[in-house]
From TrEMBL:
Name by which UniProt lists this protein: LacI family transcriptional regulator
Signal peptide, first to last residue: none
Keyword Transcription regulation part of the UniProt annotation: yes
Domain HTH lacI-type: 24-78
Keywords tagged on the record: DNA-binding, Transcription, Transcription regulation
Any Pfam family: LacI
Listed InterPro entries: HTH_LacI, LacI/GalR-like_sensor, Lambda_DNA-bd_dom_sf, Peripla_BP_I
Taxonomic superkingdom: Bacteria
UniProt organism field: Bifidobacterium reuteri DSM 23975
Bias (Polar residues) ranges: 1-11
Length: 353
């Protein structure tokens, strides 16, 4: 994930529209009306997607507090829904896009952006969203900065977070999953198969999702009375090359693990490659478990035992939630939905004698 450069931040600085006395005051009006900041901003900017009764209540509060609302002729909303991805060429991104397409309804169409390139920043991307006059945004696997949340809300553009990686904003709907429970269940399965020397290849330490998966692994080991060897725990990116690199290091140890838990299926594919290069057979010589249940996990030889993360379902629910907001059928306050995970047992784990 690219860091935000000073020049880009300046270009994407947050500016309140002239028609508003201030974002903080609008948030107070939203609380008084019992709605989200995004809903209050929709009424302020004469955007659709708000019931008549709610719109009337907010309009009265806006008038009371001296807000000047846009005229109906000033509406500038298009039917574009923004989808912001970390990458465009991964199976995970393909699952997200498929889910979003399944959840959107006509006339809305997605515009896909990727967080790539040295010049990318959240501020510059927001400028592009506003220039395209987008109806709403869907943001998967990204920590949503407060300034971005406030800016979209002031512009009346609703956002939905899918599989959020940081603290969940109270004013933004989210769709996630229980990463902790999923990893814990899979680790318990490995232990039940007789494995005690288990390695864990995790994700970026700054992501809450990665921290939850590591906590699930440690929790299962601790519950079984097993010690987690720090030498068997590593962190990196949820990518093939990263999984292969860490697996090479683990398999080169004098006392290598009998099983490796990769916190992402693409990392697990990298583990397969590292094992193959050393002439090791899965699961005879090494057991492997992944996380996500991407379509590629079924194509590995042998097929990968993994945690079903419901990536496509989360994206579909996220898009459907945005549809409810845009069509005015959502409730006043944002929802925070958490999907359950499940262990998918295939052929990559061996039961030790």
């Amino acid at each position: 994930m690219d860091s935000q450069r000073t020049s880009s931040s300046q270009r994407g600085a947050v500016r309140a529209p002239a028609s508003q006395p201030g974002g903080a005051k609008l948030a107070q009006i939203a609380r008084e009306a019992g709605v989200s900041l995004s809903t209050a901003s929709k009424v302020l900017n004469n955007r659709p997607g708000v019931s008549d009764a709610t719109r009337k209540r907010i309009e009265q509060l806006l008038e009371k507090n001296g807000y000047r609302r846009r005229r109906r002729t000033e509406q500038t909303t298009t039917d574009i829904v923004e989808l912001l991805l970390d990458d465009l060429d991964t199976p995970w991104s393909e699952e997200i896009l498929s889910g979003v397409l399944a959840g959107l309804r006509k006339p809305y169409v997605p515009v896909v952006s990727a967080r790539t390139g040295d010049n990318w920043s959240i501020g510059v991307w927001l400028e592009e969203v506003l220039a395209r006059r987008s109806a709403g945004v869907i943001i998967p696997l990204f920590e949503f900065p407060k300034e971005a949340e406030e800016r979209l809300a002031r512009s009346g553009i609703p956002a939905v977070l899918v599989d959020p990686t940081g603290d969940v904003p109270q004013n933004v709907p989210t769709v996630g999953s229980n990463d902790y429970a999923g990893v814990r269940e899979a680790t318990e399965y490995l232990i039940a198969q007789g494995h005690t020397r288990i390695a864990f290849i995790g994700g970026p330490t700054y992501l809450q999702t990665a921290a939850a998966r590591l906590d699930g692994f440690r929790g299962a080991m601790r519950q079984a009375g097993l010690t987690v060897d720090p030498a068997l725990v590593s962190s990196g990116e949820f990518r093939y090359d990263d999984g292969k690199k860490h697996a090479c290091e683990l398999l080169s140890m004098p006392n290598p693990p009998t099983a490796i838990f990769a916190a992402g299926d693409m990392q697990a594919a990298g583990v397969y490659a590292a094992a193959w290069e050393r002439g090791l057979r899965i699961p005879d010589d090494l057991s492997v478990v992944g996380f996500d249940d991407l379509p590629t996990s079924r194509l590995l030889l042998p097929p990968l035992t993994t945690v079903h993360h419901a990536v496509r379902e989360m994206a579909q629910f996220g898009a459907a939630t945005l549809m409810q907001i845009l069509e005015g059928s959502a409730g006043g306050m944002p929802t925070h939905l958490e999907l359950t995970t499940s262990l998918v047992i295939r052929e990559s784990v061996r039961k030790l004698p």
